[in-house]
Amino acid sequence: MPEEHSHTIMAVDELQAIIQRCQILEEADFKGEDFNLFQVAGQKCLEDGYAAQLLEVIQNEKNKVIIKNMGWNLISPLVRCIFMYKQEDDKREHCLRILDQLAQVWF
């Protein structure tokens, strides 16, 4: 359990670290590395079952510019997770809500 717990914290912490780093940048200053780190951290959270934490990040108004620019990188792993989880699974519901949030930011 401790190893699994530290893996979880690591995935969420990685996501938080890239978000905090990008919050202080201007939109024009986002680099390719930022997009890659965001995608890897977000995908890891999805695959490890931490869609609820990712949803919180996406819903946070302070992250709107980041999500508008980088959120599209999560579409592929998000769709995989939606199909992976069963209909009644809360994780699937979180994934669907993330997709809805992304659509609202873009449109």
SSE inventory with pairings:
Elements: H1 2-23, H2 32-47, H3 51-59, H4 64-70, H5 75-84, H6 90-106
Helix pairs in contact: 1-2, 3-6, 5-6
Polypeptide structure, described:
It holds the Pfam family Kinetochor_Ybp2. This protein has 6 helices and no strands. It is mainly α. The protein has one domain. It is globular and about 40 Å long. The model has no long low-confidence stretch (mean pLDDT about 90).
The biggest beta sheet, please?
none
Helix content: over 70%
Number of helices: 6
- Span of the ends, CA to CA: 41 Å
Number of domains: 1
Which H/E pattern describes the elements? HHHHHH
Number of E strands: 0
State the gist of this model.
The protein has 107 residues and is mostly helical.
Could you name the key traits of this structure?
globular, 6 helices, 107 residues
